[in-house]
Design brief:
about 280 residues; alpha/beta; Rossmann fold; nine-stranded mixed β-sheet; 10 helices; 11 strands; binds adenosine-5'-diphosphate
């Protein structure tokens, strides 16, 4: 038995003077039983990481799983918009002077969502905090949300290899990660940094979703590869991870997102079901 297994938490270890356990003790949510935590991550913003998180959550829920989504993108949260719940607010209950408990907001299909945009008074109110404060708030949103029993908690990670990504990857018991990219050499190069970071932290990667890989020409039905002549397979090969699938730039999907009808659109879309239904 390692000496770390005698500690109940990081603080417990610290108080016992066992400092080597800093990275091996994982933090669990306090209010619920979460079976699998999956991180969805990208190197750069705007490639569709939140969109893929939303698609995956919708399809997992359709399969009958109990699903939660933690929007860990504290300064650029977008999950409430995906699910059309941006007018709702989380109920916040104080536990003591510095600690609160959050109630997640449930989507129409029963996905439990927690996001900074369900906490701020106004949806467009910016969060102007330094890294340690952001990390502290994220920790509370993860630990102190009333998740209940969940089969899957999907974490929509902030882009890049910064402070928050490191906290999530080091402290939370992530089972595996899904990488989201667009097929462009420059994006792949930055995404590869995430792949290497995950490797260093010992987190398995399920594979990469190449989003916005092509657009269907309306006149000729051809796939136009707008960003790169290379195939999604070639980009996945460079990253050294399996290709989960490639998605087109889909303007009807964008319209459904703007109308808060993304869940309905996803469940009616044979390509999304084909790519993601068999994943879990
Ligand atoms: P990220 O989380 O990586 O910053 P988002 O998921 O927020 O990116 O996507 C950025 C923008 O691109 C959003 O407005 C989203 O609606 C749009 N988008 C993402 N994927 C697609 C797609 N396959 N087709 C059309 N629009 C998309």
């Amino acid at each position: 038995m390692s000496e770390c297994s005698s500690c109940k938490s990081k603080d417990d270890c610290k108080s016992k003077g066992i400092t080597s356990c800093e990275t091996s003790i994982k933090v669990l949510p306090k209010y619920g039983n979460v079976k699998n935590i999956i991180g969805v991550i990208s190197g750069k913003g705007g490639v569709g990481k939140s969109t893929i998180t939303g698609i995956m959550a919708t399809i997992l829920r359709k399969k009958g799983f109990k699903v939660g989504v933690l929007d860990a993108d504290i300064t650029g949260p977008s999950m409430p918009r995906f699910f059309g719940i941006n007018a709702e607010r989380s109920i916040i209950t104080p536990i003591d002077e510095n600690i609160v408990k959050f109630q997640p907001v449930e989507t129409e299909s029963g996905i439990k969502v927690m996001s900074m945009n369900l906490i701020t008074q106004l949806e467009d109110q910016p969060v102007i905090w330094r890294g340690p404060v952001i990390t502290g708030v994220l920790n509370q949103m993860y630990t102190n949300t009333e998740w209940g029993d969940l089969d899957y908690l999907l974490i929509d990670m902030p882009p890049g290899t910064g402070d928050v990504a490191l906290t999530v990857m080091q402290d939370f018991p992530i089972k595996e990660m899904i990488i989201v990219s667009t097929p462009q050499d420059m994006v792949s190069m930055i995404v590869k940094k995430m792949v290497i970071m995950a490797g260093k932290l010992g987190i398995p990667i399920k594979g990469v979703v190449e989003n916005m890989a092509y657009i269907i020409c309306t006149g000729c039905d051809k796939k136009l590869r707008v960003f790169s002549k290379k195939s999604a397979e070639e980009h996945a090969e460079y990253l050294g991870i399996p290709l989960i699938g490639e998605l087109p730039i889909d303007l009807e999907f964008t319209a459904a997102l703007e109308d808060g009808k993304a869940e309905e659109y996803v469940l009616d879309n044979p390509l999304y079901l084909l790519i993601f239904e068999g994943l879990y």
